């Protein structure tokens, strides 16, 4: 009797969510299928379209520009995993700490950049980084260090680090919120017991809080990896992938192939390549983290 | 029970929204059909909004056309410049370009290649446009010897505005004649605390269109570039004269002629550096003459116009300046057969007209590729100086590489120019990269 009641409920729920499934299919599934289809053609827009098998994917394997862009994504990923999640964890601990006052203000202040449009973020940081009237240059000038200020967005050697600072600032708030939720689930009695056994704050954080936060950290790492593979708007607005191709990332590379070179077939192959690489990275990270858990 | 009712209501509302959305589309189609029965509507996409230098001329032309042709409406679809390019590319890809749209040289060839715009060769003859406009202006708007765009500009660019006052302050008596002299004078300007030449290449085209297109022509000459465009195998990007041009362009950056932050500031920001008297020179286009006079009249008073110096040895041309049709009008491939005469009449007799050109030239200092009777005394002082400089008999007019090169070569070239200016690549590597991209294009022809 109970079993049949659940069946009816499930069916109705599917009916109720059908409109959303349709919308999801129209917005995501169908375009993805279309992109897969186009990736096997030489379509350059207009009426002419020809099936060319896996030629685009063969080209993708040998395309240095794509792999350099992917390498840049990986550089961002390493910086984000270390610094964005690191700072987010520290901020989360800070905001959760009993000694900190005005917790609501701190939470909002840290989360604020996450709600700003990427183009607003880019505008703010253009002003911060600008060599002539930038905030950093102005401060450096006051203390007589104007010659030491680097060309944040014009030096190919440091441009990825400069952009990573912006991205860390922009998105750290999201991870702080997730990690704070995870911290709230850590049983405080364990911390208190550790303190009574003589552990200091650092030791109890390292040996109790971090292991108990592992499921939350796995979620953050997964989100961070997939986020780094989707990087586009902030970088596009700040450097356009430059100087030259020094800060080019795969999403921007696909965009350029489509809208600058009009190679829509190849751009679709690049996008599908991006999805596959993202999946590999996410699955690999989960496998590594879960294996450690099993050990 | 309440929960079920709520869920049901949400479901119905969502379905309603979806169906309403579909219903609106249908209604729109019916409305369009209805209006098409009653009136002839020609859609015209452009990026010349209020404040743009061509705005007044175009609006006058549309008003005059609609007045002379009751029942015919030019429906304008305006987008700001950058979104316009993206919108146009999207339309072209989906074969939905409006009846009339603005195209530059590379858009014309790209869209012609995929069949998104009409071949206008015979229509241009039939409506007398080819009699009004010299054949050379159609080159950038052509694809495989057919005309796909009607040029409406005679734009000059890649010449230099220099501040005579700053030059005098730095002890420079005349504009340098060679690249070496330019570097030498730039040191003096830099020592005096000014940026020698401001450049804003964030969008990638300025280092090419506003400077290198003319700079390189002094090294390689028009004939070499014609061979490149004709793909006849008589010229290659690895030719020594071209490599020398790239190497000297890089030298300008390493010797401090340009501002260090050239890849992160845009063209407007570089203009502001000149207007604020922080920079002694900019390489510019003729559409900037009137804005300089309007925004910084004191600086405009001190401004003189010069052309890019040539190398001390081995120059294949002197005093090169880009002369480009820049933008033109094309007809979307899906335009109704019966609308074509109206659209061509509008282009031939209202755009390519004396009234259009007179307003543009007298009010904005811009020129058209057809003859226009205008009052030269109404030109602003900078346009007059530019006309005087570019009109000298020893001037070599050259094409704009931005609108002439195939898209894949252009991408390597424009990014590559930024790479050599910021020291990522050397001249030989970029020349080889361009040649590789070029050979790929040649092999596909």
Protein topology:
The complex is a heterodimer of chains A (295) and B (445).
Chain A: H1 2-38, H2 55-62, H3 64-96, H4 103-115, H5 118-129, H6 135-142, H7 159-184, H8 188-196, H9 201-212, H10 214-229, H11 233-238, H12 250-259, H13 264-294
Chain B: H1 2-38, E1 40-46, H2 55-68, E2 72-78, H3 81-93, E3 100-104, H4 105-113, H5 121-126, H6 129-132, E4 142-143, E5 146-147, E6 150-151, E7 155-163, H7 164-169, H8 179-191, E8 195-198, H9 206-230, H10 240-254, H11 267-275, E9 279-285, H12 288-295, H13 297-302, E10 303-307, E11 320-324, E12 327-331, H14 340-351, H15 354-364, H16 381-390, E13 396-398, H17 407-421, H18 427-444
Explain this structure to me?
The complex is a heterodimer of chains A (295) and B (445). Chain A has helices spanning 2-38, 55-62, 64-96, 103-115, 118-129, 135-142, 159-184, 188-196, 201-212, 214-229, 233-238, 250-259, 264-294. Chain A is mainly alpha-helical. Chain A has a single domain, classed as MetI-like fold. Chain A is 75% helix and 0% strand. Chain A has 13 helices and no strands. Chain B folds into two domains: 41-154 and 325-373, D-Maltodextrin-Binding Protein, domain 2 (3-Layer(aba) Sandwich); 156-323 and 392-444, Periplasmic binding protein-like II (D-Maltodextrin-Binding Protein, domain 2). Chain B has 18 helices and 13 strands. Chain B has helices at residues 2-38, 55-68, 81-93, 105-113, 121-126, 129-132, 164-169, 179-191, 206-230, 240-254, 267-275, 288-295, 297-302, 340-351, 354-364, 381-390, 407-421, 427-444, and strands spanning 40-46, 72-78, 100-104, 142-143, 146-147, 150-151, 155-163, 195-198, 279-285, 303-307, 320-324, 327-331, 396-398. In chain B, α2 links the parallel β1 and β2 (72-78). The longest helix of chain B is centred in the first third of the chain and has 37 residues, at 2-38. The termini of chain B are far apart. The A-B interface holds A 12-13, 15-16, 18-20, 22-23, 44-48, 126, 129-132, 151-156, 238-246, 256, 259-262, 264 and B 4, 7-8, 10-11, 14-15, 18, 86, 89-90, 92-95, 110-111, 113-116, 202-204, 259-265, 273, 278, 333, 407-408, 411, 415-416, 418-419, 421-425.
């Amino acid at each position: 009797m109970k079993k049949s009641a659940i069946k009816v409920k499930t069916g109705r729920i599917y009916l109720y969510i059908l409109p959303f499934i349709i919308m999801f299919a129209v917005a995501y599934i169908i375009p993805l299928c279309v992109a897969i289809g186009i990736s096997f053609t030489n379509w350059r827009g207009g009426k002419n379209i020809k099936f060319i098998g896996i030629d685009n994917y063969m080209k993708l394997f040998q395309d240095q520009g794509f792999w350099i862009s992917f390498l840049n994504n990986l550089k961002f990923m390493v910086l984000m995993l270390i610094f964005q999640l690191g700072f987010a964890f520290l901020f989360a601990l800070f905001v959760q700490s009993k000694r900190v006052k005005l917790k609501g203000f701190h939470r909002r202040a840290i989360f604020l950049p996450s709600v700003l449009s990427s183009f607003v973020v880019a505008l703010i940081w253009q002003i911060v980084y600008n060599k002539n009237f930038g905030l950093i240059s102005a401060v450096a000038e006051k203390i007589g260090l104007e010659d030491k200020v680097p060309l944040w967005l014009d030096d190919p050697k440091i441009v990825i680090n400069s952009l990573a600072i912006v991205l860390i600032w922009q998105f750290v708030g999201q991870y702080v919120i997730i990690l704070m939720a995870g911290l709230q689930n850590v049983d405080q009695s364990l911390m208190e017991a550790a303190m009574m056994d003589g552990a200091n704050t650092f030791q109890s954080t390292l040996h109790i809080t971090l292991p108990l936060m592992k499921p939350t950290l796995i979620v953050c790492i997964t989100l961070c990896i997939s986020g780094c593979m989707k990087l586009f708007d902030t970088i596009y607005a700040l450097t356009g992938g430059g100087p030259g191709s020094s800060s080019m990332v795969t999403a921007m590379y696909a965009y350029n192939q489509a809208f600058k070179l009009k190679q829509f077939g190849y751009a679709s192959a690049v996008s599908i390549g991006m999805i596959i690489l993202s999946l590999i990275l996410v699955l690999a990270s989960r496998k590594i983290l879960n294996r450690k858990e099993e050990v | 029970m309440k929960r079920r009712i709520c869920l049901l209501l949400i479901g119905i509302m969502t379905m309603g929204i979806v169906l309403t959305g579909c219903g609106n589309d249908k209604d729109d189609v019916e409305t369009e059909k209805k209006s098409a029965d009653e009136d002839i509507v020609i859609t015209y996409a452009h990026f010349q909004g209020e404040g743009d230098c061509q705005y007044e001329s175009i609006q006058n032309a549309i008003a005059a056309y609609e007045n002379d042709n009751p029942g015919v409406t030019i429906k304008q679809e305006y987008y700001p410049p950058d979104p316009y390019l993206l919108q146009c590319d999207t339309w072209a890809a989906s074969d939905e370009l409006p009846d009339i749209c603005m195209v530059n040289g590379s858009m014309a060839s790209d869209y012609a290649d995929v069949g998104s715009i009409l071949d206008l060769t015979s229509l241009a003859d039939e409506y007398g446009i080819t009699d009004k406009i010299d054949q050379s202006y159609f080159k950038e708007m052509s694809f495989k010897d057919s005309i796909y765009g009607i040029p409406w500009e005679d734009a000059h660019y890649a010449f230099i505005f220099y501040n005579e006052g700053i030059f005098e302050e730095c002890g420079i008596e005349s504009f340098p004649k060679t690249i070496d002299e330019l570097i030498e004078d730039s040191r003096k300007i830099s020592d005096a605390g000014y940026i020698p030449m401001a450049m804003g290449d964030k969008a990638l085209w300025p280092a090419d269109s506003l400077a290198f297109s003319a700079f390189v022509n002094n090294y390689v000459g028009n004939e070499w570039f014609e061979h490149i465009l004709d793909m006849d195998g008589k010229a290659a990007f690895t030719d020594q004269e071209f490599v020398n041009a790239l190497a000297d362009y890089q030298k300008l950056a390493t010797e401090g002629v340009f501002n260090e932050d050239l890849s992160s500031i845009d063209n407007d920001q570089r203009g502001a550096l000149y207007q604020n008297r922080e920079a002694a020179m900019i390489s510019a286009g003729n559409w900037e003459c009137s804005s300089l006079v309007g925004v910084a009249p004191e600086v405009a008073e001190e401004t003189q116009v010069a052309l890019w110096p040539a190398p001390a040895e081995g120059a294949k041309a002197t005093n090169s300046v880009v002369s480009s049709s820049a933008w033109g009008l094309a007809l979307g491939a899906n335009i109704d057969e019966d609308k074509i005469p109206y659209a061509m009449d509008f282009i031939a007799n209202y755009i390519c007209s004396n009234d259009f050109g007179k307003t543009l030239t007298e009010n904005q200092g811009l020129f058209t590729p057809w003859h226009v009777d205008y009052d030269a005394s109404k030109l602003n002082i900078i346009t007059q100086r530019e006309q005087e400089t570019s009109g000298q008999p020893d001037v070599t007019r050259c094409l704009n590489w931005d609108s002439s090169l195939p898209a894949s070569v252009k991408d390597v070239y424009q990014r590559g120019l930024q790479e050599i200016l910021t020291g990522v690549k050397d001249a030989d590597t970029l020349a080889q990269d361009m040649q590789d991209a070029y050979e790929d294009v040649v092999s596909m022809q």
